[in-house]
Structure formats: C-alpha cells, structure tokens
C-alpha cells in the first residue's frame, strides 16, 4: 500500500510519484467497482468541499459533485459571478476564509499560480480542476482508461495532435513521463510545449524510461501508436480572433480515419471533451458560417467509431476525482 496522501493538494502530477499515481488509479478502479456493484462508500462522511469555477464546465463540475455525494460529503458550487473571488477579495484571503469552513477546495480558472496560491494559504487540500497550464484530474482519468483498455501503462505510446502548448498536452506529457510511457507531441513547431517544461519532463523520463518526442508530420508521428489524443484548437479564455490562425495552422493535425489507420491496429482515440466533430454546437455552427469547415480537431467518423473509449474516459473523470478526494481527505483506508 502506498503511503498516506492525506492533507496533500493535487495541483499537477509533478508532485506525485509513479507509485502514488498508480495508487490513485487502483483506488479509482476499486471505487468504480463499488459504484457499479451498488456498494455504499461514504468514506468522507459529513465533510464539506467548495468548488470554485472561474471557467465553465460540464464533466469536471459534475464529477466533483457526484463523487462528493457518493463519498457522503456536501459541496458548495461557486461561480465567479456569485462570489467575491478575484474582484473584491484576493485569492489569499479567499483561501483563508474557505479553508476555515471547508475540508477541501477545487479550483478551475486561469493561471497555475492562482491555484498554487490557494493551496499555499488554504490549509486544506486544493485540487486543480483545470488551469491554462495543467489539467491533472483529466490525465488521471485518461491513464485509467488506457490501463483498463491495454492492461498496463508502461511503454504505451500516446500521440497528442494539435495545440501542444496548453493544459492538455502539458499534463499528458507529465503523466506519460511519470508512468514510463512513450509520448509524442505532433504539431507545428510553434505549438510545441515550452522548453522548460520539456526539460523537467525529460529529467523524469531518464528515471522512468519514458520516451518524449516532438514531431511535425502526423503520419510519421502516429506510426504504431496505441493512443491518439486531441483537444480543442482554441481553449477557454482565449480570444475569438485566434480561430482563423488556429484553423489554418492546425487543420493538418485533425484526427481523420487516415491518421487513425496509420496507428497500431488496436489503437484507441481519446479526447478530453468537449469536442467539435460536427455542427451540433453553437460554436461549431458559427465556425462553419465563417470558415466553411464542418469538423475541427477530429472528424465525426473517428469520433463515432471510437465513442466507446471516449465516453469511458469521460465516465472515468468521476471515479478518478473521487479517488483523489478520498485519498487526500482521509488516512489511507487500504485497498
Ligand atoms: N474535460 C473537461 O474538463 O470537461 P469540462 O470542461 O466539461 O469540465
Ligand atoms: N484545452 C481545453 C481543455 C478543456 C477540457 C481548454 O482549456 O478549454
């Protein structure tokens, strides 16, 4: 059994050892099995958590709320308009107030420094529900999905296609480095992750046997890959003006059936979601009117063919977030 994680925040995967990450995945698998079997697991009965969302969310908010209820906890949802955060009250003061009332705090918002500051002053565990730089609870769900599908993580090859400078590719690179996997970022060079982050991950890779690569040619990058992964081309909080440039520069990195056929025969496709794969969204329709494209980072054909893995991944957000909260709020109760 891994050492207790009680009292720890979950801000990036950098602060967690490979054994601790594996432990969280084992715990998530156990909690998932209990949920499916209808077994109650009120391990954090009567604790209270605050959920701060400065950006919108479907999966992350619902995953935290359902996981909290399943663990016997109460949650308070704070959207930026309904609280004083940032505008009338500093993060530091907010941290001290919420930390005196709640047992744990989730934060989704902008710069990573904000969630770091919250964690430094709250005195209770803080969980990163997405910042511009990192999305670690998403990667935990991705790792669980890959492990469920292939049986193990070591040496599995994951290729990320698209904007590899943002939260998703950054966090996947950290996760793959930690778990001894093979990670390839495939994008135009200007969209590669920043050098300092790459260097930190390469240092981890030296110890875990991970391979980290950066390529510009999709067909070359995906050869024999086990998992192809993509994310939206314009992330929350970015200005609308960047769409034109992103569509022009990232269209060659769209995940199509040809790209999928270039990967291993049993490869799967994953996407953190939400995805622009058809015209059934408001933004999808606007982009079609303006630029004439019906699909963006992934084609509808790929999305439909691989929907089993994509929706398993979405469901796993709840089980993995539950594991993070249970492990950091309570002494390890053993699995
Ligand atoms: N993948 C993810 O974080 O989804 P939401 O933005 O809906 O929370
Ligand atoms: N890169 C995306 C991820 C959404 C889950 C964003 O930040 O909007």
Instruction: Kindly estimate the percentage of residues that lie in beta strands according to DSSP.
Output: 5-15%
CATH level 4 superfamily of the largest domain: Aspartate/ornithine carbamoyltransferase
Number of strands: 9
Small ligands present: phosphoric acid mono(formamide)ester, norvaline
Terminal Cα separation, in Å? 7 Å
Please tell me what the overall shape is: globular
Helix share, percent: 40-55%
Give descriptors for this structure.
335 residues, alpha/beta, Rossmann fold, 2 domains, 5-stranded parallel sheet, 4-stranded parallel sheet, 13% strand, binds phosphoric acid mono(formamide)ester, binds norvaline
Structural description of this entry:
By secondary structure, this protein is α/β, with parallel strands linked by helices. It has 2 domains: 13-135 and 316-329, Aspartate/ornithine carbamoyltransferase (Rossmann fold); 139-314, Rossmann fold (3-Layer(aba) Sandwich), CATH 3.40.50.1370. It is built from 13 helices and 9 strands. The protein has helices at 18-36, 59-70, 91-101, 112-122, 136-150, 167-178, 195-208, 218-221, 243-250, 257-262, 282-291, 300-305, 307-329, and strands at residues 48-53, 74-78, 104-108, 126-128, 157-161, 182-186, 211-215, 227-230, 268-271. It has a 5-stranded parallel sheet. A 4-stranded parallel sheet has the order 2-1-3-4, with helices on both faces. Helix 5 (136-150) crosses helix 6, helix 5 (136-150) crosses helix 13 and helix 6 (167-178) runs parallel beside helix 7 (195-208). The longest helix has 23 residues, at 307-329. The radius of gyration is 19 Å and the shape is globular. The N and C termini lie close together (7 Å). The model has no long low-confidence stretch (mean pLDDT 96). Phosphoric acid mono(formamide)ester binds at residues 57-60, 130, 138, 272-273.
């Amino acid at each position: 059994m891994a050492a207790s994680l009680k009292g720890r925040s979950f801000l990036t995967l950098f602060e967690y050892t490979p054994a601790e990450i594996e432990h969280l995945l084992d715990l998530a698998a156990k909690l998932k099995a209990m949920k499916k079997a209808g077994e109650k697991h009120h391990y954090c009965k009567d604790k209270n958590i605050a959920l701060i969302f400065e950006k919108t969310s479907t999966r992350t908010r619902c995953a935290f709320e359902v996981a909290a209820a399943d663990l016997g906890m109460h949650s308070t949802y704070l959207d930026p308009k309904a609280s004083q955060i940032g505008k009338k009250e500093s993060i530091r003061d907010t941290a001290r107030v919420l930390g005196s009332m709640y047992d744990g705090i989730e934060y989704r918002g902008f710069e990573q420094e904000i969630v770091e500051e919250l964690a430094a002053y709250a005195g209770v565990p803080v969980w990163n529900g997405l910042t511009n730089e990192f999305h670690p609870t998403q990667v935990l769900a991705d790792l669980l999905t890959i492990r469920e599908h292939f049986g193990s993580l070591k040496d599995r090859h994951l290729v990320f296609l698209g904007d590899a400078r943002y939260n998703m590719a950054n966090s996947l690179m950290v996760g793959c480095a930690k778990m001894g996997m093979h990670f390839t970022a495939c994008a135009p060079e200007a969209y590669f992750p920043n050098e300092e982050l790459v260097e930190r991950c390469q240092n981890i890779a030296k110890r875990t046997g991970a391979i980290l690569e950066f390529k510009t040619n999709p067909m070359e990058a995906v050869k024999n890959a086990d998992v192809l992964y993509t994310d939206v081309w314009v992330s929350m909080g970015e200005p609308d003006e960047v769409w034109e440039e992103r569509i022009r520069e990232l269209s060659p990195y769209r995940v199509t059936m040809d790209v999928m056929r270039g990967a291993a025969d049993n490869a799967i496709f994953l996407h953190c979601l939400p995805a622009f794969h058809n015209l059934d969204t408001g933004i999808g329709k606007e982009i079609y009117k303006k630029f004439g494209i019906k699909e963006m980072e992934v084609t509808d054909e790929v999305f439909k063919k691989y929907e089993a893995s994509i929706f398993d991944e979405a469901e796993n957000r709840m089980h993995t977030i539950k594991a993070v909260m249970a492990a950091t709020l309570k002494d390890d109760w053993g699995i």
